[in-house]
Amino acid sequence: MGVISVRRFGALLAALAVLALVSLLSLWIGSKGIPFGSTLSVLLHNDGSPDAVIIHDLRVPRMLLGILVGAALGLAGSVLQAMTGNPLADPGLFGINAGASAAVVSGIAFAGVASVSGYVWFAFAGAGLAALLVYGAGSAGGGVTPDRILLAGAAVTAVLIAYVSALLMLNTATFNQFRFWSVGSLANRRMDVVVALAPFIVAGIVLALCLARPFNVLALGDQHGRALGVRVGRTKALGVVAVTVLCGAATAAAGPIAFVGLAVPRIARLLVGPDQRWVFPLSAVLAPALLLLADIVGRVLIAPEELQVAIVTAFLGAPVFIALVRR
Predict the structure, then answer these.
(1) How far apart (Å, rounded) are the C-alpha atoms in residues 156 and 93?
(2) How many CB atoms lie within 10 A of CB 141?
(3) Which of 183, 197, 185, 187 has the alpha carbon at shortest distance from 54?
(4) Do residues 138 and 144 lie in contact, with contact meaning Cβ atoms separated by under 8 Å?
(5) Which of 179, 202, 194, 324 is nearest to 261 (CA)?
(6) In this model, does residue 313 exceed pLDDT 90?
(7) Is the pLDDT of residue 189 over 80?
(8) Which residue, 148, 245, 256, 301, has fewest beta-carbon neighbours within 10 Å?
(9) Average pLDDT over residues 226-243
(10) Distances (CA, A) of 79 to 51, 97, 113
């Protein structure tokens, strides 16, 4: 095994260790103080005490959902960046999360959808339509470039956010349910949400990981990719499917969360180089660690109240975005 492989394995193992540590902290830290020893004790032996109820019914689902949503967003960002060759690509900045959110709110307002298992299908449709809209707007009047796609994503996101705001202001019942959905948060999600969303996110993760090798070849250019046997159209279409499934499921579970898919793939490439076979899995491990850490910060920053995790990730991700733009 070469030095580079050893370094990549080391980075992946270190990321897994960080994720395990942050997961434990996520179980331990909350609005009700529970000693660390008691947290571990009731985690392993559910004795039905109030502390056990808090850990098993509230904090374990929240931690598991943070891992799933974080992995989905990190991997979706990696796929988008590999597919577009744009280091600024992020599901939030490209309007995909906003499309999923707008579709969910439309489902609440016009179809009476009231459960996460119903949200997810609207989220898939909204994420897919937003991706097509951004690509169509970005390619109009010339070839597709990273700058055009980014501007198209910003424009589509602004329009969709305005649409959601208008709908909520005009429909009180939708606004009340929208508040219950609590955009951009992992709080108040129970195990049934985790169980409902896990199959979609796992399927999206498997599909994305299978695309790592073809995207490595396409990094040389579409023409070289065809010469080396990669079916360019099919690979990119499957990439869109993977991003749609991952972002749709993540948004249905927690609402739109930006910047996780932007920052994490960048960090992964700094650690393991440009090989997507390592960038993709490392992003799927680092992103949930970042999301859970942001969730913990949101719990303690204004305790006993909480900041939504989407607000914390925005504060963490905005400097990264500015630094990337200035390069």
Answers:
(1) 9
(2) 7
(3) 187
(4) yes
(5) 324
(6) no
(7) no
(8) 301
(9) 86
(10) 40, 15, 30
- CA dist 319 and 240 (Å) reads 27
How many CA atoms lie less than 13 Å away from 31 in the CB half-sphere? 11
| SS3 state at 25 | helix
Query: Helix H segments across 29-115?
Result: 36-44, 50-53, 60-84, 96-111
Write out the two tokens for 124: 């898939």
- The set of residues, in sequence order, having a beta carbon less than 8 Å from that of 106 and lying 6+ positions away, is 122, 126, 167
40-43 contact pairs (CB < 8 A, 24+): none
Q: Residue 138 above 90 pLDDT? A: no
How far is Cα 214 from Cα 233, in angstroms, rounded to an integer? 11
Q: Which residues of 55-87 are buried (b: 16+ CB within 10 A; e: fewer)?
A: bbebbbbbbbbbbbbbbbbbbbbbbbbbbbebe
Rounded to a whole number, what is the distance in angstroms from the first to the last CA of the chain?
Answer: 34
Mean of the per-residue pLDDT values for the chain?
Answer: 84
Amino acid, single-letter form, for residue 197: L
- What the block records as the tokens of 250 is 């993540």
Contact assessment for residue 263 and residue 99, using Cβ atoms and an 8 Å cutoff = no
Specify the pTM: 0.87
DSSP letter at 178? H
Q: Looking at 83-87, 186-190, 232-236, which range is the least confident one?
A: 186-190
- Residue 20 to residue 292: CA distance in whole angstroms: 11
Distance CA 204, CA 71 (A): 10
> How many CA atoms are closer than 13 Å to the CA of 146, on its beta-carbon side?
12
By three-state DSSP, how is residue 275 classified? coil
pLDDT for 101-131, tens place per residue? 889 888 888 888 877 778 888 888 888 888 8
